[in-house]
Design a protein that fits this description.
Order of helices and strands: HHEEEEH
Radius of gyration: 20 Å
Helix content: 25-40%
Structural class: alpha+beta
Shape: elongated
Length: 115
């Protein structure tokens, strides 16, 4: 009987330890179009890696940051944040990207008035 109670308490302790390590995914609700890289890092932390980067003619550039889910996440999701010339123009899961982010870039206008 004491052995069973010790096993049960050990199992509960392990479950508690693992659930304490479990966390949620990156909170992309803090992101906004037009944010600069420094503001993104303040809002959701440093990226796991820079997934892609390209410099175009005329000093334009783009970059994709990748955020991986924390260890022991119940519903792991990877997120990408797409920058064009130092401003966020798109973010989401890798499958959300159409393969041609240029369409989202063309729609973005920092001086666009709200309706």
């Amino acid at each position: 009987m004491i052995r069973a109670i010790k096993g049960l308490l050990g199992g509960l302790a392990l479950a508690l330890a693992l659930s304490a390590c479990a966390s949620w995914n990156v909170d992309v609700s803090k992101l906004q179009l037009g944010m600069e890289p420094e503001a993104v890092q303040e809002a959701i932390g440093k990226p796991f890696t820079i997934r892609a980067s390209k410099v175009y003619e005329g000093e334009e550039w783009s970059e994709v940051w990748e955020y991986l889910p924390p260890v022991f996440t119940w519903t792991p999701k990877t997120y990408w944040v797409y920058f064009q010339n130092g401003k966020v123009v798109q973010w989401g899961e890798p499958g959300d990207f159409s393969g041609s982010p240029a369409a989202a870039v063309k729609e973005y206008n920092p001086t666009k008035s709200s309706r």
